[in-house]
Each structure stands twice: as C-alpha cells, then as structure tokens.
C-alpha cells in the first residue's frame, strides 16, 4: 500500500510538472502573438503583419524550447546519465571480483532503488566471498592436521623390527585420525546439504522423551569410561511434530560435546520439561565452560573456543545443531560460565 501511494503521488507530480511547462509555453506564445497584434492594431496589417507576428511568435517558441531542452539535458545528465555510468562501472568491478564497490545514491534519481539493491547485493557477495575464503582456509587446516598424523604414523609403521606395543599404538592413532577425517567430511557434506536446502525435514509425531533417551544411551560406554555421573529429569509423554532423524544429530552433538568437555568424575544433567507455550530440552555439564566472547561465536563453522581440546573435534558440530534447529522451527540457547560448565537448551513450540 505504501509503495502504491508513493507511485501514485509521483505520477501526479510528473503530470502537474508537464502540465505547467506546456501551459507556460503555450500561454507565453499566445500572449506574445496577441501583444504584437495589439501593438499594431491602428495599422492595416494585412497578411504581411500577421506573418510578422507569427514569425515573432515562432522565434519565441524556439527560444522557450531551447531553454527547456537545456534544462532537460541537465536534468537527464544528473538523474540518468551519471547514475547509469556509476551503475555500469560498479557492475564491471563486481564482475571482476571486486565486491567492495559501493555507489552513492544520486538525489532525485529514479535509479535510487536500483543503486540501493546493487549496494546490498555487493555487500552480500562480499560477505559470501569472505565466508568462502575463511571456509576454504579452515577446511584446509582441518584436513591437513589428520592427514599429517596419518602420514607420520604410517611412516613409523614401516620401521623394521617395530615392537608389537608400538605397532598397536600407531595403528590406533591411524584409526582415530581416519575416523576424525571421516567425521569432518561427513559433517561438511551434511552442513552443505542443509544450507542449500537439499535435505528436507519429514515431520511426524514422535515421542521427544524416547528420542532423547535413545540417543543418550548410545554414549553409555563413554560416560562409564570417564566415570561421569548422568542425571536425568525427563518428563514422559511429550510428543511433538518433528523429524526424529535430524533431531538425532542435535542430541548426538550436544551429548558428545558435554562428554568431551566434562572431566573424569564430572556430572551431566539432561532435562526435558514443558510449560503452557514451549518445550525445553537441556544438556548441562560441569566442564570447562566458556567466556562471553567464545559464547558469541560458538555456533560458527570451525570455531573452537577451547584450543586445548581442538583435536577432539572439527568445529562443525554446533553449526550443524544451529542449522537443524532453524529448519525444525526450534531455538537453541547457551548459558555458560568459565570454569563451571555450560548448558545448551533447545526450545520447541508446542
């Protein structure tokens, strides 16, 4: 409605402007013609006098038209030629890969909306280019580390008369880093499919309580190995419409992170509750926690706040969790205190 009114008033403005210009020109010519006739009214003008008046009027018309032409040229130069040249120069720079270009809008120009959209497009492309560069650099680094480890331990295995204990140790390191490399590639592919909307959720009614418990039990060996105390407060019979397969990725990453950052003998608390409007599923640990600055970037791809444990992950897990939560129309919140632990909460609409 706002755009319609704006276009409507602009159309009236153009019509009135055209009307006054044409009316002014015609009025001037008619007044000049009548003035000449009146000045020589006491003389028998005849056809020659009328011709003289007509010639004077024609010359006046030519002069007015010339003034209008000059005015229109200046107007077109300011409102059309200059913006078009700026747009052409900007598009040429963009096609050459320079996304930092910005165009300053010209006042009273019909090209202002195009210029604003072009500036937005350039800003978006610049952001995408930065993300692509950072992504390639991060992927290269993440791939380089396990590949270097595989190469080193593979070389060590070729040593003659290698002790059986060392051979088993080196083989385990190769298996661990192969698994890490496989997880990295798998997460990259999953995240790419999710961001490009290749994977579509299949919503169906399922028990959220059972879904969380089933995923938690998959990590039983890990929490027993680290002697971590698992405490649960899960309300039964909570059902939601969601994609359970995609939701499994969320719980697996949250449980995996909690176990990774919780020291031996620590505690992990899993809760599932609901109120009149929302359902809350939380995973709380007593691990190292994180500071405020780390919390701001925790859902970014390849970001790892605790570099001392970076070898245990690839920085894509929480990015996957965030993207899946968005697709499933859920919110994910994080509360953390450095040295005391973190709590990740997934909020669902009832």
Question: What is the CA-atom radius of gyration, in angstroms?
Answer: 37 Å
- Please describe the biggest sheet, giving its number of strands, its sense, and whether it closes into a barrel: 5 strands, mixed
Shape by Cα distribution: elongated
Average pLDDT rating: 79
Helical run tally: 9
Query: Pairing-aware structural class of the strands and helices?
Result: alpha+beta
Main sheet: which strands, in order across?
A: 2-4-5-7-6
- Poorly predicted segments: 307-311
In N-to-C order, the SSE pattern is HHHHEHHEEHEEHHEE
Number of extended strands: 7
Whole-Å distance between the termini?
35 Å
Model description:
62% of the residues lie in helices and 13% in strands. By secondary structure, it is an alpha+beta fold. The strands form 2 sheets. It has a 5-stranded mixed β-sheet with strand order 2-4-5-7-6, covered by helices on one side. Strands 1-3 form a two-stranded antiparallel ribbon. Helix 2 runs parallel beside helix 3, helix 5 packs across helix 7 and helix 7 packs antiparallel against helix 9.
Short description:
Helices cover 62% and strands 13% of the residues. By secondary structure, the protein is an alpha+beta fold.
Characteristic key phrases:
350 residues, alpha+beta, two-stranded antiparallel ribbon, 9 helices
Walk me through the topology.
Blueprint (H helix, E strand, L loop, with lengths): L1 H38 L6 H50 L16 H46 L6 H32 L8 E4 H10 L2 H6 L3 E6 L4 E4 L1 H18 L5 E8 L3 E8 L6 H6 L19 H11 L2 E8 L3 E9 L1
Parallel strand pairs: 2-4
Antiparallel strand pairs: 1-3, 4-5, 5-7, 6-7
